[in-house]
Amino acid sequence: MKFIKYAIFLGVLLLALAGCSKDDKAGADTTKKGTTSGGELRVAVPSEPPTLDTHVNTTTISSNIARNIFETLLTFDSKGGIQPMLAESYKEDGKTIEFKLRKGVKFHNGEELKAKDVVASMNRWIHVSSSGKETFKGANFSEVDEYTVLLEMAQPTSTATLVLSYSGGESPSIMPASVLEGKEEKEKVTEYIGTGPFKFKDWKQNQHIHMTKFEDYSHRDEPGDGLAGKREALVDDLYIVFVPDSSTRVAGLLSGEYDAGMEMPIDNVDQLKANKDVVLKSVPRELLLLYFNKKEGLFANQVARDAVNAAVKKEDVLKAAFVNPEFYKTNHHVMLANQEAQWYSDLGKDEYGKQDAELAKKLFAEAGYKGEEIRLMTSRDYDHMYNASIVVQEQLKKAGVNVKLEVYDWPTFSERRNDPSAFDITIITNKGKVEPTSLVWSRPDYVGWTNSEKLAPITAKIRTAPSLDEARKYYDELQAFFLEYKPAIKMGDGDMLFAGRTSLSQLEDIDGLIFWNVSNSK
Questions:
Q1: Where does the record place Basic and acidic residues bias (predicted)?
Q2: This prediction's pTM
């Protein structure tokens, strides 16, 4: 079995949030016999997802919820090793990967997982997701027999199994062929049926998503390890509760109304740490970027993008977003700082801290800016985005730019960011990726609409390299493109804070919170 590591990334992300007694002893191991099960788990999250169809959506909240329902062929263990999940095994041979499927795996509708379901799901994913279209251009899944699937690629791809293992935005989730039949490729799936430990129950708009334990779940036999191995729903009901106001999330967690919370505000760290019934953790996971609308308007002009880069002091924006240096890291290159064992470039390091308002004014004039209103779009549902936007607005005003802050709730923001007539600039946090060609700023169909003929040859070199060690050699070229073309401006890296009540046996974060193998003794 092939074993590829990105342990520097995953090892830091994997932090167990163990339930603690008053004497700080770790809570029960949920994999051991006799662990408390049943009851419910209520998790407060800052936003409502636009959909749970992971093939067509990049939002963090969508993927974090959906991976309890859907599963993938491959996944990552706690050390970053690629392990089979719905696959029993797999083997690579140049331009092909053959997957042997586990037998007896049931979908939530009672159907057994077969090769036809994988073929229908994966070929749809290749055609509708940016990850699929870019990494697997010209590739195709086909059925060998009922439990064997073959992926044939146009060229050898060093990053193929990494991308197939990813459970974040646009993850390659497996759905029943019967659900996908008769749908247009880009038509969103609204019948959420997977093979995961939890099954979809209902979705009450502006309130919550309710999932229940899947009694016929077919778990793997290996012990749980990261996202790999045995998964088990130890609570009967899982509620993902939409709580946009951060102070309400904190109050609900402290009172016990919520058992866990995502995206806890840094301003409340001391309050959360002081409560004996709450355990607070943080994970380095987010890239804070300023995105330009490059499809139309002022920032289709690269000189205007250069002007913003001169006007903005990145560390000030980063500090506004994440407040405490304990929870952010200044970082000039496009991957997370904790991935530097695999991906690192010196390019841009010396320029990171520079700010020049007079140069910015000169460049704005050169770009043809005449004082028109610049729309900076943001959302209060994520404190770090909103606070960063306030600082950027002030910095641009000092450079003579007329900036209007437009604030929306997250669902509206998520919709409007796909409309090139709706904004000029925006600030978003993106989750770190396992390899640089998957970074979303590079996509022509993502916010900002990056479209440069110079980018494709660079990403091709990385993807088609015979190994990740060879791919590393081309990272400087990608960094140089980012600095010159400026599809976005990276401010730095930030942590995501999450918290849970001590009644929980464990709560882990690997590219998002994990809710299986978690019991609740309250």
A1: 23-32
A2: 0.78
